[in-house]
Specification:
Elements lengths: L4 E5 L5 H9 L4 E5 L3 H8 L10 H10 L3 E4 L7 E4 L14 H10 L8 E4 L7 H10 L11 E4 L9 H7 L2 E5 L2 H11 L7 E5 H32 L3 H8 L22 H8 L5 H11 L1 H12 L7 E6 L14 H10 L4 E6 L13 H5 L4 E4 L11 H7 L4 E4 L6 H6 L3 E4 L6
Parallel strand pairs: 1-2, 1-4, 2-3, 4-5, 5-6, 7-8, 9-10, 9-11, 11-12, 12-13
Antiparallel strand pairs: 6-7
Length: 423
């Protein structure tokens, strides 16, 4: 097929890799973002997010002049909307960015164009929100302007590989729209592409992330139960998973990221009287930062005065720089509300953050407790002896079952584990 001219609205964790992928496969791509810092960096062949190999791909795409960025759309054959869909304080979908993006492209639409919403959205978004805006172009939807939803299914840290190899769902407002969108993604997708309606595609995306969120909530509930029972939840999970039809997830200090911590609320918003398990699971996972603080309070209850907690890792998952909806940031917010805690942070993946220390030793000075909050690979071999020498009390609280208990205790630390009663 002829290579298309593509305009991608939103150059974040999905829009930028998608733009680079199309550009390195021969398409002419204009990436659009309201953030001039992002636009200027891209036009220099630079990126401001951390994702393996993305910098190399972007450099190649920019050098070939197949990828450029601007703060406003250009005429194109295809418009892909990949903007944030966060939740409001009352847990409702904030569709402001999608509305703005759709309105932004209307003056540039012409007969035969494709408009694809990649942003994760509540069911009905394409049919009830996007289509009415696009109709302002005067084009007949489904005959002159083809519209649909094709959500990403990628894991940060493996985005480029998964964009190519994962199966993909394409939902169109009619069959012809779905087929045209499928043909577009075939430019780089090696996985299977399945056609359906836009609304089913929206539900699939939100339910895929809800499935994982619910299962993590089950593990977190188990962790709390095992703490009360004085047994090790991680051993329970390991042994349960020897069963051929059981696959328990792992507990942790909470669930973050733009997918698992957000998407279930889209289902709850539309179905509050039905989505009871989903809502309870979301609340269970949201309760984990407070639960971790409760454990810290219990561990340090005999220490008088101000206590210092050193937090290792503040991103929402390991080995990335993404802090969106990070439960560790929420834990820090809770600690800040008290007047008896001092906070120190060290995360080598995050360039700037309040409380950020220059290194592990600096972060550990006069500390009473090390909280292993994110299991970054770099934390697997901590200089515990050196850290312990500058600490006031040598306690380590592992929220990920990441460190070797014997090694930690051999270095003179008291080892505490999320999902196991305090020792």
């Amino acid at each position: 097929m002829l290579r298309k001219k593509i305009c991608v609205i939103g150059l974040g964790y999905i829009g930028l890799p998608t733009s680079a992928m199309f550009a390195t496969h021969g398409c002419k791509v204009i990436g659009v973002d309201v953030n001039e810092k992002v636009v200027n960096a891209l036009n220099r062949g630079e990126i401001i997010i951390e994702e393996p190999y993305l910098d190399i791909m972007v450099q190649a795409a920019v050098r070939s002049e197949h990828l450029k960025a601007d703060t406003k759309p250009h005429e194109a054959d295809v418009f892909i909307i990949s903007v944030p869909t966060p939740i409001t304080e009352d847990k409702k979908a904030d569709m402001g960015c999608v509305i703005s993006a759709a309105e932004m492209i209307v003056p540039y639409l012409k007969k035969g164009n494709l408009v694809i919403l990649e942003s994760t959205s509540p069911t009905g978004t394409v049919e009830e929100l996007l289509v009415p805006i696009l109709e302002k172009s005067g084009l007949k939807i489904g005959e002159e302007l083809y519209v649909g939803h094709s959500p990403e299914r990628v894991l940060p840290g493996k985005i480029l590989w998964e964009l190519v190899n994962n199966n993909r769902i394409v939902g169109g407002i009619n069959r012809e729209s779905a087929e045209k969108i499928r043909d577009l993604y075939k430019i780089f997708v090696n996985g299977e592409i399945y056609l359906t309606t836009a609304t089913i595609a929206e539900m699939c995306k939100t339910m895929e992330n809800t499935y994982r969120d619910v299962n993590i909530a089950l593990a977190n509930e188990l962790a709390k139960i095992c703490e009360k029972a004085g047994i090790n939840a991680w051993e329970v999970i390991e042994l349960c998973n020897k069963h051929p039809r059981v696959n328990l997830h792992q507990p942790g200090p909470g669930v973050g990221g733009h997918c698992l911590a957000v998407d279930p609320w889209f289902i709850i918003e539309k179905n509050p009287e039905l989505a009871k398990i989903i809502e309870l699971s979301r609340k269970t996972n949201d309760s984990m930062p407070q639960h971790v603080l409760n454990r810290i309070n219990e561990i340090l209850k005999d220490i008088k005065g101000t206590k210092k907690v050193t937090i290792l890792g503040i991103t929402y998952k390991p080995n990335i720089d993404d802090m969106r909806e990070s439960p560790i940031v929420k834990l820090i917010d809770l600690l800040e509300q008290r007047d008896d805690y001092e906070i120190s942070v060290y995360d080598p993946h995050v360039k700037e953050y309040k409380y950020q220390a220059k290194d592990l030793i600096d972060a550990s000075k006069e500390s009473d407790l090390i909280l292993l909050a994110v299991n970054h690979d770099i934390f697997k071999t901590l200089p515990l002896s050196d850290m312990g020498r500058v600490m006031r009390n040598t306690i380590l609280f592992d929220t990920r079952d990441f460190l070797d208990r014997d090694d930690v205790e051999d270095k003179g630390f008291n080892y505490e584990l999320l999902g196991e009663g305090s020792r």
